Amino acid sequence: MPPVIFLLLSLLLLLLLSSSHAADFCVADLTGRLTPSGYECKKEAAVTTNDFVFTGLGKAGNTSNLIKAAVTPAFVAQFPGVNGLGISAARLDIAPGGVVPLHTHPAATEFLVVTQGTICAGFISTANNVYYKSLNTGDSMLFPQGLLHFQVNGGGTTAVAIVSFSSPSPGLQITSFALFANNLPSALVEKVTFLDDAEVKKLKKLLGGTG
């Protein structure tokens, strides 16, 4: 057999063998090291069925708070089985008058399905174009990765949605909290938001910020 053909066959065999032993999953070892690609894997002998089951999405979240909304996450920290699989989920409860303020998920696209009530939802593109719609039970909407988006209760009853993400750890940054719930000096906040001193101080007090 010519050496080149032998080499190619050997490489093909190695690829086949390596693919046949590819990991089926990587359940997160939450006590281990977190890397940019996810948590270290739990030893397979320690993996159980419960690592692939999450029961929290059937229970309503507590909406007795400032925004009258609650998010119940099934991210890798709560659901180790999603580690490395590029997916996670959450339940969203929004009481009448409630809102999930403008926020972003830096690491994931979001897919929302309304399961109860009416939700007005939308996002803003980097070209500052706004896409929003009133969604009823059974309707769904996409929010592209990293873009500012929001959800508002659009009716007189509690609204519920199930959302999925294209990452086990989508990340979250709420714009109003990022601006007013920290110790960034008010004078700087006023410069970057064009708000006056009284309004900035009012929002800082409301959201727990200082400075």
Automatic annotation (TrEMBL):
Residues 55-201 form the Cupin type-1 domain. It is found in: Secreted, Extracellular space, Apoplast. SMART domains: Cupin_1. This is Germin-like protein. InterPro entries: Cupin_1 (IPR006045), Germin (IPR001929), RmlC-like_jellyroll (IPR014710), RmlC_Cupin_sf (IPR011051). GO terms for molecular function: manganese ion binding. Residues 1-22 form the signal peptide. Its main location: secreted. CDD domains: cupin_OxOx. One of its GO terms (cellular component) is apoplast. Keywords: Apoplast, Disulfide bond, Manganese, Metal-binding, Secreted, Signal.
